[in-house]
Amino acid sequence: MPGPVKPVSQDRLAVQPLPFDAVVLSPDGVLGAWQQVNAAATLPHCIEHLEKSAALANMRGAAGLEVHAFEGFHFADSDIYKVLEAIGWEAGRSDVGRFLPFVDRTIQLLGQAQQPDGYLNSFYSATPEKQFSDLRWGHELYCLGHLLQAGIAWARTTGRRDLLEIGIRFAERVEEEFPPGGRLPVCGHPEIETALAELYRLAGEERWLDLAVRMVDARGHRSVGPDRFGYGYFQDHEPVREVRGATGHVVRQLYLAAGVADVYTEAGDTALLEALHRIWSDVHLRKMYITGGLGSRHRDEAFGDPFELPPDRAYSETCAAISSVQFNWRMLLLTGEGRFADELERALYNAVAGSISPGGTEFFYSNPLQVRTERDGEHEQAPARRARWYDCACCPPNIARLIASISSYTATADDDGGLQLHLYDPARITLPAATVTVATGYPFDGRVVLKIDGTLTGVLALRIPAWSHAFTLRVDGEPQSLDPENGYVRIAAMGVAQVELKLDTSVQLRQPHPHLDAARGCVAVTRGPLVYTLEQTDLPDGVLLEDFVLDASRTLVDAGRDAVLGVPLIRVHGSTRARPAEPYPDAAVNFAISDRISANLVPYYRWGNRGPGGMRVWIPPASR
């Protein structure tokens, strides 16, 4: 049972995805518990809001089942498809019988709304003369991409193909609309490229890979845009093979990068891989927040200049973090290098996890690293509190489909019988000749114990994250002294019954790059892969968040587990700094420091769950 990414060509892969059902996450772990909440709460919530938001009513109108004037964003069909995809992946890990009436009704509805020539889009169905007339903003190919991915999920986990066939008919209509030598098949919002590559992998028909290749080749010839944001917003400013870095709308950029990675995997061309490395380096070394969030410009949901990363103006869209997970996963498959797993983990445990409430029914669209105490939070895409839904609802169903399939991102295999473990969570991994049980309290506890029942014939590779300054390793009780290679320690696993890895998850202070002006002089607190944050609610009465300064000379300690949030806290010490009367005091003025006070920090992914209030990741030290 293949998962979301199942390459056909093995020639350019360093490691290969495991079957979707090979990894079963335990509900005792962070990721496994998240899957439980996703199935119990997030999926029903998404289904409810598809109706409330008029997305389904729009489709019924397109099918002629009711008189309905289109409501909402013209790409709302994609919300339906992402929810169907999420349920499809959930069907591969649990009983989804309670969702089947919705699934059956919705697939039947899509079939009724599909036109005789295969075209399917609820916004343009009433105006056939406008179909494919606005590739810049129309999102028709984008929506088709999500439809295909939903169909692929159901075909792979259950063998059900009716949704997939609807998507294929639409893809055939697109193929007719954009023949070789004709109009350039460039969608203003990339996504279709990776979906077509996956359709090729499932169906085995070269035509779909050829179409994906043509779409990648066509981009960069300025056929969409410039509009008010410029060609770079649409990644149509220069050919893919020539790009120097990441630009424009973040989600568009990384969805395209994921598609290019899929095309390279199947069709080759080292110029594409070189471009992917340039994009990755620009994103992760110069344009990424410490939480793994991406995008500093609200106006166009875009990357800023290098190190333009203001914490209080971080847009850091949830879908951007999800697209980072997807891009990094594909780069990991191609290279086997731990740095890609490190960044996947950073985004997953911070920017993605922080976007959703513990109950799974409230969401952030954007994910700032600082919320000022007096912020009103009225802006819809950047509220001070999570919302149950959004007019532009791309993020909630995107989270749902990622979490339903997250087990696919934990481990891989290679041609020599080896197993690579990338994400640590309690799990059972079933291989052809062995079962590996993973026990851990990660990410709060760095101890990971693997018990092997059967025989692993190859090398067992365990990731040593870049944030872990030390580790110990025991194989069948015997201490080992191994140096990591490309981010992994490698163990000859033949005959091994148990492996114990202990990562250093001690609390650390991080400082920003010297070019990151917006956080200069401040520090952030991390523990393992987790970024921590200070909330106004954890300061003594009368102490304003903006006045608190951290005593970096004192030890930061574990403060125990918070009963409400269910996560370990970190205890810090500091004081408050006096506020001047004027906004720009003389540089020679020294601000008075109050008596010492203490406060607890919470993991970033749990902030905002105890009512409104200020928050900050980057904290000024008293000595700076």
From TrEMBL:
<dbReference type="InterPro" id="IPR049046">
    <property type="entry name" value="Beta-AFase-like_GH127_middle"/>
</dbReference>
<dbReference type="InterPro" id="IPR049049">
    <property type="entry name" value="Beta-AFase-like_GH127_C"/>
</dbReference>
<feature type="domain" description="Non-reducing end beta-L-arabinofuranosidase-like GH127 C-terminal">
    <location>
        <begin position="507"/>
        <end position="620"/>
    </location>
</feature>
<dbReference type="InterPro" id="IPR049174">
    <property type="entry name" value="Beta-AFase-like"/>
</dbReference>
<dbReference type="Pfam" id="PF20736">
    <property type="entry name" value="Glyco_hydro127M"/>
</dbReference>
<feature type="domain" description="Non-reducing end beta-L-arabinofuranosidase-like GH127 middle">
    <location>
        <begin position="419"/>
        <end position="493"/>
    </location>
</feature>
<dbReference type="GO" id="GO:0005975">
    <property type="term" value="P:carbohydrate metabolic process"/>
</dbReference>
<dbReference type="Pfam" id="PF20737">
    <property type="entry name" value="Glyco_hydro127C"/>
</dbReference>
<dbReference type="InterPro" id="IPR008928">
    <property type="entry name" value="6-hairpin_glycosidase_sf"/>
</dbReference>
<protein>
    <recommendedName>
        <fullName>Glycoside hydrolase family 127 protein</fullName>
    </recommendedName>
</protein>
<dbReference type="Pfam" id="PF07944">
    <property type="entry name" value="Beta-AFase-like_GH127_cat"/>
</dbReference>
<feature type="domain" description="Non-reducing end beta-L-arabinofuranosidase-like GH127 catalytic">
    <location>
        <begin position="29"/>
        <end position="407"/>
    </location>
</feature>
<dbReference type="InterPro" id="IPR012878">
    <property type="entry name" value="Beta-AFase-like_GH127_cat"/>
</dbReference>
